[in-house]
Amino acid sequence: MSFRHLPSVDALIREVRAGQPDAPHELLRDAAQAVLAQARKAIAAGSPPPSLPALVAAVHAELAASVAPSLRPLINATGVVIQTNLGRAPLSAAARAAMQAVGAGYSNLEYDLVEGERGSRHVHLEQLLVRLTGAEAALVVNNNAAAVYLALIALAAGREVIVSRGQAVEIGGGFRIPDVLRASGATLVEVGTTNRTYVRDYAAAISERTALILRVHASNFRLIGFMHEPELAELAEVAHQHGLPLLDDLGSGTLIDTRQFGLQAEPTVQASVAAGADLVTFSGDKLLGGPQAGIIVGRRDLVGQLRRHPLARALRVDKSTIAGLAATLHSYLRGAALREIPVWQLISTPVTALQQRAEAMAATLVAASLPARAIACESAIGGGSLPGATQPSFGVALTPASSNATALAARLRAGDPPVVARIVDEQVVCDLRSVFPAEDATLAAALIAAYR
Ligand SMILES: *Cc1c(COP(=O)(O)O)cnc(C)c1O
């Protein structure tokens, strides 16, 4: 054993210090200790002691790694366009520019430029949302979970909320409708059965304790076969006959009809408003394609009640969210959403375009001696929208010689940028539905690097 050939921690820090004049002592010490511990382990396992320059280089590398950001961009080759674990909607160029511009300095976030006095942060989004959805009023909070929670606390605390048994569901990430109701101080009254609920079930459950009727969009599962749920308009009618509001939690919601892309229909926000929902809640970063936010549109008096509730202050959005969401909504207003909003760019890409890119990428990989080929596949939309629906897509499949697809996928995740792919039948599949054309060359290079 030759541990005595290793420098002391202090001696190693002195060597490194010249190249790291500003680094705090504790940071250098932790890195030097980690490198020396590694070296002792290697020596104990029979390696020769590393040279001083090698140790210094290792400390610099350790320092760089210790201050590297944990949150990093990556290439989403899963084919799932809205993936909560991968950050949901990528932002449009306009949204990014607006967030940058507002974030870089001061703004009229809560300042009325005409009157020269205090204003409201809500004005920047409300008129846009009113025009796009046909609702009377709008309010934006941190995310849709917060939107539902605020609506229930403000309108139903201490009273009853009627929900179909088939909708008392878990959305994911621990968001369970029965739990949210309990946390808001409301009592859940489940009606109907898991698979069949009728308007008369709702009507029979209404009493003087009822605060509202809640409909929850089944975001991540599908009831098929012998099932029935009332139309939203029927629910609105029974709610209004009893002077109750109808709250519609759309989850994703969309302003664009998804059927034009060969997908099944995801309910549009405009349709919910038109069908008589008194409040509609949906996410900013699902099919809307903007930053994380929870959007509430509906009746002016109810939105006002929510806005005045003390919790609204705790759930308010910051200036960069308002800027990014406003820019995203402007794309819809100008009729440019399909062209400008990344989620819609990806969903609306014709499969023939994906096939061409997959074939070109496969040819590049084959030329580099990789066992690659272009394959047809199906991608899910994800993000609690269009459950069970898939879209035809194209990707590149790699069959590792050792048939160890799991190991290849792990090397892809360890790369820079990381690539998250799918494993299908012992192959690593990169589905191009969720890959931007500008990423193709980087993806091909990452595949080549990971394969070697
Ligand atoms: C996604 C979803 C939520 C939660 O929305 P977040 O924006 O993730 O907070 C709530 N309800 C439904 C139906 C959803 O699909």
From TrEMBL:
InterPro entries from the entry? Answer: PyrdxlP-dep_Trfase, PyrdxlP-dep_Trfase_major, SelA-like, SelA_trans
Catalyzed reaction equations: L-seryl-tRNA(Sec) + selenophosphate + H(+) = L-selenocysteinyl-tRNA(Sec) + phosphate
One Gene Ontology MF term = L-seryl-tRNA(Sec) selenium transferase activity
Give the pathway listed in the UniProt entry for this protein: Aminoacyl-tRNA biosynthesis; selenocysteinyl-tRNA(Sec) biosynthesis; selenocysteinyl-tRNA(Sec) from L-seryl-tRNA(Sec) (bacterial route): step 1/1
Return the Gene3D superfamilies for the record: 3.90.1150.180, Type I PLP-dependent aspartate aminotransferase-like (Major domain) (3.40.640.10)
Location of the protein in the cell: Cytoplasm
Gene Ontology BP, a term: conversion of seryl-tRNAsec to selenocys-tRNAsec
Task: Name one matching Pfam family.
Answer: SelA
Can the keyword Transferase be found in this entry's annotation? yes
The residues forming a coiled coil are none
- Enzyme class of the recorded protein, top EC level: transferase
State which Enzyme Commission number(s) the record gives: 2.9.1.1
Q: Would you name any one GO CC term?
A: cytoplasm
Keywords annotated in UniProt:
Cytoplasm, Protein biosynthesis, Pyridoxal phosphate, Selenium, Transferase
Q: Which cofactor does it need?
A: pyridoxal 5'-phosphate
Residues with the modification N6-(pyridoxal phosphate)lysine, per the entry, are K286
Q: What does this protein do?
A: Converts seryl-tRNA(Sec) to selenocysteinyl-tRNA(Sec) required for selenoprotein biosynthesis.
PANTHER family to which the protein is assigned, alphabetical: L-SERYL-TRNA(SEC) SELENIUM TRANSFERASE (PTHR32328)
Q: Which family, according to UniProt?
A: Belongs to the SelA family.
Q: What is this protein called?
A: L-seryl-tRNA(Sec) selenium transferase
**The organism of origin for this protein:** Chloroflexus islandicus
